[in-house]
Amino acid sequence: MGRLRQRRGAAARRSRLSAGRRSAHGYRLANRRLVHNVIYDELCVGIVDDGSREQYRRIMGELVDQGAEGILLGCTEIDLLVGSQDARVPVFDTTHLHVQKAIELAFA
């Protein structure tokens, strides 16, 4: 897989390396704000809104149109809103990946 795009919260996006990669791939400021606001103003307080789900699907579609070959749900709350059924490319859910690894380590 050559290009993987990440959906994650603002705190995780603040690194210099990440900022440079976002600029290089044309990730829009409006999308970053929307992703952040949905995570912290909705999902973290138990709100799962169909309108926000549609916006996330739109953003994921735009990323695929720009060449992304996968989507990484890099914030544990995002899987409350979207999943593999919402994208045309593989979706990697960090919540699921972390749980799988914890179980693997616990029973190793």
Textual characterization of the structure:
- This protein has 108 residues and is mainly alpha-helical.
- It has one domain (5-106): Rossmann fold (3-Layer(aba) Sandwich).
- Helix content is 52%, strand content 8%.
- It has helices at residues 10-13, 16-24, 29-42, 50-65, 94-106; strands at residues 5-7, 71-73, 91-93.
- A 3-stranded parallel sheet has the order 1-2-3.
- Helix 3 packs antiparallel against helix 4 (50-65).
- The longest helix is centred in the middle third of the chain and has 16 residues, at 50-65.
- The radius of gyration is 14 Å and the shape is globular.
Helix-strand blueprint:
Elements: E1 5-7, H1 10-13, H2 16-24, H3 29-42, H4 50-65, E2 71-73, E3 91-93, H5 94-106
Parallel strand pairs: 1-2, 2-3
